[in-house]
Amino acid sequence: MSVNQQDLNPDSTTDVGDVTDTEEELIKECEEMWKDMEECQNKLSLTGTETLTDSDVQLSLLIMQMKCLTAELSQWQKETPEIIPLAEDVLVTLGTKEFQQLRHDLEMILSTLQSKNEKLKEDLEREQQWLDEQRQIMESLNVLHNELKNQVVTLSESRIFNELKTKMLNIKEYKEKLLITMGEFLEDHFPLPDGNVKKKKKNIQESTAQLIALHDILEILINRLFDVPHDPYVKISDSFWPPYIELLLRNGIALRHPEDPTRIRLEAFHQ
């Protein structure tokens, strides 16, 4: 483009001034034409305020359009706009001016887009760094959570096991004490017929050779109740002294079988 400008006539500056004057004249003529068109439009709008019947609506619209087009055609026929001469130097000057303006606009757009891209890159890097930090924190928290969970489960299970074991030992000790206390009480207050308080009687009269103590009878009934809960009845044998059986039945400690009076069971006090 610089080579073409050097080849132009030295009077090109004068031509540029002529082009500028021509542009100003065209602008003035356009403004005058615009004023004439506004006047025509005002006249048409005043004409269109007449009341129309339903049967003449389409015809009236067509007439108004025809008047508008006729007025516009008449206005254009009166005007004879001047045509800019298509000289080479004028075209080069106008093209150079348009190209420079377009180049300037494109450079502005490019600068704006580059600034936006830089800003977006910075935002993306900052968000990516934040995301990586959050992921690391999440991984650390997950590891810590799993460790604490396993530790809590282990401690909880071991503590519960130890507590249950301690309770079982205490219950066994308490059971042994109850059995010993009950045995001593029964031996003192419910001895066998000969007055001997031992559990089993041997080397005495033949009639009481097979009798057992009251606490032995109760122990048999208790073991039967818990070992065979679906059939807790025990057969009354010759070793059970009848007064003891009657004592248990009268006081509701033992119950007789509803169909077999020779069988008894312990009352289920624990239910």
UniProtKB/TrEMBL annotation:
<keyword id="KW-0539">Nucleus</keyword>
<feature type="coiled-coil region">
    <location>
        <begin position="103"/>
        <end position="151"/>
    </location>
</feature>
<keyword id="KW-0158">Chromosome</keyword>
<keyword id="KW-0175">Coiled coil</keyword>
<feature type="region of interest" description="Disordered">
    <location>
        <begin position="1"/>
        <end position="21"/>
    </location>
</feature>
<protein>
    <submittedName>
        <fullName>Centromere protein K</fullName>
    </submittedName>
</protein>
<dbReference type="Pfam" id="PF11802">
    <property type="entry name" value="CENP-K"/>
</dbReference>
<comment type="similarity">
    <text>Belongs to the CENP-K/MCM22 family.</text>
</comment>
<keyword id="KW-0137">Centromere</keyword>
<dbReference type="InterPro" id="IPR020993">
    <property type="entry name" value="Centromere_CenpK"/>
</dbReference>
<feature type="compositionally biased region" description="Polar residues">
    <location>
        <begin position="1"/>
        <end position="10"/>
    </location>
</feature>
